[in-house]
């Protein structure tokens, strides 16, 4: 029975004198890439839908060189570490931010650390009502 390489050689009309390619040794860059991907996979579960879209749009809008990619990797790891550290030290208060939808309308996001859920509102008044209903009176 032919090996996978021999079958490929035959199909692609590669000379039988060409040696079987050997896998490249795993370097530190490839190892870091695997670690980074596993970290991203783990922490993607903590992002809401809007944050995932923003991150993907940012990634797809840039063509990075290897050195820029490595710098970006370390910067992202540092940001991720700081977020985790601040999450452990921060009081359990909601996070509020604004964004615009595809029509240009303002949306208000409220992340509730007690429930782990993010709510989306169309007005500041709706946010105030939500805060009052969830006993976050210090934000008024």
Keywords:
140 residues, 51% helix, 2 domains, alpha+beta
Protein architecture, described:
The protein is built from 5 helices and 3 strands, in the order ααααβββα. It has helices at residues 4-11, 28-44, 49-60, 66-89, 124-133; strands at 95-100, 106-112, 117-121. The mean pLDDT is 77. Strand 1 and strand 2 form a beta hairpin. It has 140 residues and is an alpha+beta fold. The chain has a 3-stranded antiparallel β-sheet with strand order 1-2-3, covered by helices on one side. It folds into 2 domains: 29-90; 91-140, no CATH class.
Judged by helices, strands and strand pairing, the structural class is alpha+beta
Q: From N to C, what is the helix and strand string?
A: HHHHEEEH
Q: How many domain units?
A: 2
> Order of strands across the widest beta sheet?
1-2-3
Query: How many beta strands in the DSSP annotation?
Result: 3
Give a quick account of the main beta sheet: strands, pairing sense, barrel closure.
3 strands, antiparallel
Q: What's the number of helices?
A: 5
Helix content: 40-55%
Computed over alpha carbons, the radius of gyration is: 24 Å
- The global form is elongated
Short description:
The protein is α+β, with helices and mostly antiparallel strands. The protein has helices at residues 4-11, 28-44, 49-60, 66-89, 124-133; strands at residues 95-100, 106-112, 117-121.
Provide the fold topology:
Elements: H1 4-11, H2 28-44, H3 49-60, H4 66-89, E1 95-100, E2 106-112, E3 117-121, H5 124-133
């Amino acid at each position: 029975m032919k090996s996978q390489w021999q079958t490929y050689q035959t199909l692609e009309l590669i000379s039988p004198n060409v040696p079987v390619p050997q896998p490249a040794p795993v370097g530190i860059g490839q190892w870091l890439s695997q670690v980074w991907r596993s970290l991203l996979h783990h922490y993607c579960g903590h992002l809401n839908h809007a944050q995932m879209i923003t991150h993907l749009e940012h990634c797809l809008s840039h063509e990075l060189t290897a050195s820029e990619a490595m710098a970006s990797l370390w910067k992202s790891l540092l940001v991720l570490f700081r977020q985790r550290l601040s999450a452990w030290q921060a009081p359990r208060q909601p996070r509020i931010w604004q964004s615009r939808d595809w029509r240009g309308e303002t949306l208000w996001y409220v992340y509730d650390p007690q429930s782990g859920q993010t709510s989306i509102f169309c007005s500041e008044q709706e946010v105030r009502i939500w805060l009052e209903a969830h006993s976050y009176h210090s934000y008024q």
